[in-house]
Amino acid sequence: MASKTAGNEQIILNTYANLRSEINQIYSKITELEMEVSEHSLVIGAIQPLDPSRRCYRMVGGVLVERTVKEVLPAVQRNKEGLEEVISRLNEALENKKKEIQEFELKYNIKIKKADNETKDDSNQKEGSAQGVLVGPAS
């Protein structure tokens, strides 16, 4: 009987760990795409004031191609809008996954122990009694 309960607990813990892993993956993908949106914004800001007939280079599938600002600017703007749309969908998926994990925590009465005890202990220490490593410039 005890081994069956332990097996069920392990299944629950594995499922919970998978949910947490999925949330972390969504967070990292959102961050990655936000960086790309930022790069697109920088490119748009740099080429928008330029003459539309000016030569412009763009990387397409690993190949650098020569175009004009007039041809490249709309494509970069479309790509940026598409990335923003994907980010909004990922944010929705993230919210759904957060709700799912909250329901899972409630269903199986899962409580997470946080390392708040360490931070509370550190804040109660006197300034002179702090223990740690002080790193200075190499001499």
UniProtKB/TrEMBL annotation:
Residues 115-125 have a biased composition (Basic and acidic residues). InterPro entries: PFD2, PFD_beta-like, Prefoldin. The keyword Lipid metabolism does not apply. GO terms for biological process: protein folding; response to cold. Residues 115-139 are annotated as: Disordered. One of its GO terms (cellular component) is prefoldin complex. It comes from the Eukaryota. Pfam families: Prefoldin_2. Residues 73-114 form a coiled coil. Keywords: Chaperone, Coiled coil. One of its GO terms (molecular function) is unfolded protein binding. The keyword Coiled coil applies. PANTHER family: PREFOLDIN SUBUNIT 2 (PTHR13303). Belongs to the prefoldin subunit beta family. This is Prefoldin subunit 2. It comes from Canna indica (Indian-shot). The lineage of its organism: Eukaryota, Viridiplantae, Streptophyta, Embryophyta, Tracheophyta.
